[in-house]
């Protein structure tokens, strides 16, 4: 009797499983059509020399696109030797050793390397060469932009979320007002910041710095190579901190008030309550917020494109330049794959570092 019952339950479970697969089938087909197939096409195209909007025959070229994008080398720069004294030449103005030009030591076959950076190590001078200096710069810019902006947005967003989660008069109005920067279209906000960052006293920030006596009112925020990236970070932090605060606020509201009441009875102050209750229980929401924001930051396009154009690239704007400007669809696809791999790596790293189970974030 018990065997029949067990057999009956097993048949029921099998029927439910088959029903579940049938119900999931339409969603799986849609996922394959709109996600997996295009992604597969991008991976395949990255191994070809396909040209965008061109009748040129497409050829399979293997890893040539990745080699062109990611190949780097380090070469030692020999000092210039004086023919008369057979000693290294010393610059009279700086008193430093004069080294050979990087072009004389960087490899040119099978691919040509260009100078990216020079550095000294243990008394020797080295040059870091790359086959695509612009893409290496784009990766560096994007990673610095991502790490800096996401960290600031997390810190500021958590502070805003803690404030608006407390009880005070006008809480609803404050929650609505904090979303205004996020609601503004990115291109519109970029144009607003372009005016505020103008390189003369028509710009808000130059006017403020001049009034406070901190600058001459002619700081070129969007033209100076040292300030461009930090200007992008400021624009992104202003716009996206409300989104981070909204996600963290949702996580805060899932924490039961009873836990704080019990902690207060036990004598725990606000700081101890934060680190023993709020932070541990907020980890799943933080993981979701970090993954979403990091994904957006790593593929940042509009702010860089509107404010900087081709003076400084992000990975996404360099991808656009190769696809539309150079019509090199194969190389652009390889850039897209690199962006995908970096985003995937960041997502896994966040989950591991925060100790969050995938089921918790679902």
From TrEMBL:
Keywords: Cell membrane, Membrane, Transmembrane, Transmembrane helix, Transport. It is a multi-pass membrane protein. It comes from the Bacteria. Residues 139-350 form the ABC transmembrane type-1 domain. Its main location: membrane. It holds the Pfam family BPD_transp_1. The keyword Nucleotide-binding does not apply. GO terms for biological process: transmembrane transport. It is found in: Cell membrane. One of its GO terms (cellular component) is plasma membrane. The keyword Chloroplast does not apply. InterPro entries: ABC_transporter_permease, MetI-like, MetI-like_sf. The chain crosses the membrane at residues 21-40, 143-164, 331-351. PANTHER family: ABC TRANSPORTER PERMEASE PROTEIN, INNER MEMBRANE ABC TRANSPORTER PERMEASE PROTEIN YCJO. Belongs to the binding-protein-dependent transport system permease family. This is Trehalose/maltose transport system permease protein. It comes from Anoxynatronum buryatiense.
